[in-house]
Amino acid sequence: MRRRVRGLVTLGVLWMVVGCTIEQRTDREPQTSQSTRRQVIQPEGVARLPVFSSAIRSGDLIFLSGQLGALPGVTPPQLVEGGVEPETRQTMENIITVLDAAGATLDDLIKCTVFLADIADYAAVNTVYQEYFPNDPPARSALAGSGLALGALVEIECIAAAPSGG
């Protein structure tokens, strides 16, 4: 009996699939090629590493890779000296550079994720972060992780709303 029920269920599912038709959706714009849906943002002077892009624009969003406090135009990448506050400040300046290359600003940021080598640096990072967002900062998460690239003390990745027409 169990075998017969299973067979009937399989036939029922098969009958439902055979009876279906596939029609093109009309409730959204036709898909475009990968190159127009995904735009790489690579600002001049920012070191390009072969394993990721500085940012990717897809539709109405810009996804920034994690930014470090690396000095612009220095190859290989080198972190600014002086500890977590100068690193955070340089990280924010690097974010501004990437956003600018995408035609966006800090006001377009929707979400940031802050990675700290040491959670004890949370307050110091917040002090600098607040200089860049005195009013209405983007949504944010912060967490401690070990082994940030280049031995960095802070890394920040962001998602921004892409300005129209860009």
- Average per-residue pLDDT, rounded, comes to 84
Helix content: 25-40%
H and E string: HHEEEHEHEE
Structural category is alpha+beta
CATH architecture: 2-Layer Sandwich
Q: Helical stretch count?
A: 4
Approximately what portion of the residues adopt beta-strand conformation?
Answer: 15-25%
Question: CATH H-level name... which superfamily?
Answer: RutC-like
Tell how many strands the DSSP assignment holds: 6
End-to-end separation in angstroms reads 63 Å
The CATH topology turns out to be 60s Ribosomal Protein L30, Chain: A
Please mark out the parts with pLDDT under 50 across 5 or more consecutive residues, or reply none: 8-18
- CATH class call: Alpha Beta
Q: If strands are numbered along the chain, what order do they take across the biggest sheet?
A: 1-2-3-6-4-5
User: Which overall shape is indicated by the principal axes computed on the Cα atoms?
Assistant: globular
Oligomer: single chain
Q: What number of structural domains do the residues give?
A: 1
Largest beta-sheet characterization: 6 strands, mixed
Determine Rg (CA atoms, Å): 23 Å
